[in-house]
Structures are given as C-alpha cells and as structure tokens.
Amino acid sequence: MKKLGLDGTDIRILSAVQQHGQLSKMRLAELVNLSPTPCWARLDRLKTAGYIRGYHAELALERIVDFTQVVVTVSLGSHRKAEFDRFEAYIGKLDEVTDCIATGGGMDYVMKVVTPSLACFQALIDEMLATDLPIERYMTYIATRQVKTSQPNLAKLVAKSAK
User: Fold this and answer.
1) CA 2 – CA 4 distance, rounded (Å)
2) pLDDT per residue of the chain (163 residues) written in tens, 0 to 9
3) Inter-helix orientation angle 25-32/36-48, to 10°
4) What is the rounded distance in angstroms from the CA atom of residue 157 to the CA atom of residue 23?
5) How would you label 48-85 residue by residue, b for 16+ Cβ within 10 Å and e otherwise?
C-alpha cells in the first residue's frame, strides 16, 4: 500500500469487486460495511483512477503494491498419486501461488507465484524444500512484464469444441 494512499475501505472495495465481479450498490456496500452512497463514490473514484481494469475484476496490482512475479517449473522425484496429491494439497494452501497447472512431459507442474519481493519468494521456496515434498528439481523464471493475460473466448471455445 505504500505506492498510493489507498485506505482499508478502498482495499475492501477492490477485494469485493475482485472476488465477486460487478455488484449492485447495495450488495457492495453491505460487503464492505459502508453506506451505499459513499461506497459507490469510492468505487467510481477507484474506476477513474484505473484500479479496476474489467469486470472479471482484474486489479491493477502494480498500482496498489510492489510485487515480484515468478514462474516456477517443478519436477517431482516420485510419480505416485499420493505424492501428486500431497504436493497439490500443499500448493493449494499457499496464497502466493496464484496459478498451478499439472503438465505432461519434462516437468510435472508450472506455477505462477506472486510475492512482495524476491527475498520473500526465496523464503517460500526454502520453506517448500524444507518440507517432505518429493521435489526433485525446480527452475525459476522472473517475470519482467506482463505481455498478455486474458480469459478464454468462451464463444470460440464452445464453437470449436462442438466441431
């Protein structure tokens, strides 16, 4: 929050919109515990300032807080179902891991990790390696800028899968 003067109420509004998408004035006010008119005025101010990019509620995180984004590939030493389940359960509890996909081929998982700093990322990795997870090797790739992020075009996806 050191980048700009957002207060706790602004953060609650952004969090509610991120979690729920577009909301009615009454529902948003209820979620953030603020009366409807000032809540809506704050939401308008946040929209005008560019903190909300769209209504799948993608936040302009770089305008809110400094962070480090790292792509991590992980290969497990054991390929038993119990080991995959244990790794996935562990990852599922980490707020810093924003995306994790299981892959076939040379690596078992590709993760996107967002932390306040590179030092925090390294502490997270050190903690993961200190557990009894069957991580055989991992590789990290520091993200330098976001080139594209989007949701799939549902109409095209459905049309092409129907063929």
Assistant:
1) 6
2) 344 578 889 888 988 888 888 899 999 999 999 999 999 999 999 999 999 988 765 788 889 999 999 999 999 998 999 999 999 999 999 999 999 999 998 899 999 999 999 999 999 999 999 998 999 999 999 999 989 887 654 345 545 654 5
3) 100
4) 27
5) eeebbeeeebebebeebeeebbbebbbbbeeeeeebbe
**Dihedral, CA of residue 40, residue 44, residue 47 and residue 49, to nearest 10:** -130
In Å, what is the CA distance from 41 to each residue of 13, 25, 26, 37, 89?
11, 10, 13, 6, 41
Contact 59, 53 (CB under 8 A): yes
Residue 84: closest CA among 135, 31, 18: 135
Instruction: Provide the total of helices (H) and of strands (E) in the chain, helices listed first.
Output: 7, 4
pTM for the model stands at 0.69
In DSSP terms, which residues pair with 115 in a beta bridge?
68
SS3 at position 114 = strand
